[in-house]
Amino acid sequence: MASTDQLTFQDPTKRFPVISPPKQDQPEPGLDADLVPQTDRGEESYRGTGRLEGRKALITGADSGIGAAVAIAFAREGADVALNYLPAEEEDARKICELIEEAGRKAVALPGDLAAEGFPEQLVHDAARELGGLDALVNNAGKQIAVQSLEELSADQWETTFEVNIHAMFRITKTALEYLPAGATIVNSTSIQAYKPSEDLIDYAATKAAINNFTKGIAQQLAQRGIRVNAVAPGPIWTPLQVSDGQPKEALPEFGKNTPLGRAGQPTELAPAYVFLTSAESSYVLGETLNVNGGTPSP
Ligand code: NAD
Ligand code: MG
Predict the structure, then answer these.
(1) Which domain does 171 fall in, by range?
(2) Shortest CA distance to 32 belongs to which of 72, 62, 2, 60?
(3) What is the pLDDT of residues 188-217, one digit of tens each?
(4) Which residues is 58 bridged to in the sheet?
(5) How many domains does the chain have?
(6) Residue 81 and residue 248: Cα distance in Å, rounded?
(7) Cα(121)–Cα(100) distance, integer angstroms
(8) Which pLDDT score, from 0 to 100, does residue 194 have?
(9) Average pLDDT, the chain
(10) Which of 10, 76, 261, 272 is disulfide-compatible with 294, CB 3.0–4.6 A?
(11) Are 132 and 58 in contact (CB under 8 A)?
């Protein structure tokens, strides 16, 4: 989609077109391969500048959307990457693994369900073994299903959303502490929903508020160990999350148009925020939530 790289001087209103996605539906978790229009994950445009040379990263939800853009960027910045995703997302994950390998880095595919008992812990052990250590963690996987009323919101959905979005983050982070050396980083994907909850995303928004709070608390606890923890809070980004019931269908054509920038974000526009918070250049940045949302005022 984009022909210029992320470092080229350009007008942010025009870097990507204003999209009006047609109404569409995919079963959860949704595939980038089937998304209309396709997204930009930086496949053609992201230019590495050596900021993560030799790093060993585990990224959840790395097959598609924001996680895929982060995985591509990390590899081009010099990191080896272990990717977690659901088995149903193998097609998307293959593509990202190929791009990581084209960048000359190692890609370790570790599919599995973060809501399954024992899997989050196993994932970390497998990633550290395959990468020969672990010094960067990106907790990015997320579940978002829009439901109109509390009566329609099942206890099962409530629990699974918490399981995937925040319980797995706790389990992965706790296990990762067995491996993370001083200098290591953790970046958690939160959301503008943490402060501006949509009325149809009650469970999801509550997990995102929990992620913000967890990030700021644990950042203080791990500071003296030299491990920095931060979060990125995306606004409306065009990804498969939105068409697998993440938004009501009728809302899709207008997705992202109510931001000051006037358009939805593309996944690759998130990658530099994760690179910055993972790179040693952000050494004095801890417990921060970096908003990447097209200009909507946020705390
Ligand atoms: P996405 O669908 O591309 O990525 C979400 C990923 O979560 C999926 O690819 C899947 O691999 C993973 N996932 C979901 N359930 C899982 C499970 N049970 N086990 C393992 N993995 C599971 O969508 P995205 O928009 O790139 O989402 C990435 C993160 O960004 C999420 O945490 C999301 O909440 C957050 N976010 C997205 C937006 C947006 O507008 N797209 C806005 C704010 C925050
Ligand atoms: Mg996916």
Answers:
(1) 32-292
(2) 62
(3) 999 999 999 999 999 999 999 999 999 999
(4) 82, 137
(5) 1
(6) 34
(7) 24
(8) 98
(9) 97
(10) 261
(11) no
What is the Cα gyration radius of the chain? Answer: 18
Q: Is the CB of 175 under 6 A from ligand 1?
A: no
Q: Is the CB of 231 under 6 A from ligand 1?
A: no
Q: How far is CA 7 from CA 15, 36, 43, 285, in A?
A: 12, 27, 15, 22
Does 54 map to a domain?
yes
How confident is the model over 130-140, as pLDDT tens digits?
A: 999 999 999 99
**In contact, 144 and 204? CB cutoff 8 Å:** yes
Residues 98-114: tens digit of each pLDDT: 999 999 999 999 999 99
Q: Cα–Cα distance between 44 and 170 in angstroms, integer?
A: 34
Q: Is residue 253 part of a domain?
A: yes
**Could you count the other beta carbons within 10 Å of the beta carbon of residue 169?**
27
Taking 90 as the threshold, does the pLDDT of residue 1 lie above it? Answer: no
pLDDT at 116 over 70: yes
- The reply to whether 15 falls in a domain is no
Position 245 in a domain? yes
What is the spatial distance between Cα 113 and Cα 202, in angstroms, rounded to a whole number? 22
- For residue 86, the CA-to-ligand 2 centroid distance in Å is 7
pLDDT in tens, 203-255: 999 999 999 999 999 999 999 999 999 999 999 999 999 999 999 999 999 99
The whole model's pTM is what? 0.99
pLDDT tens-digit profile of 74-94? 999 999 999 999 999 999 999
CATH code assigned at 179: 3.40.50.720
Residues 85, 179, 195, 204: which is the catalytic one? 204
Q: Is 141 in the pocket of ligand 1 (CB under 6 A)?
A: yes
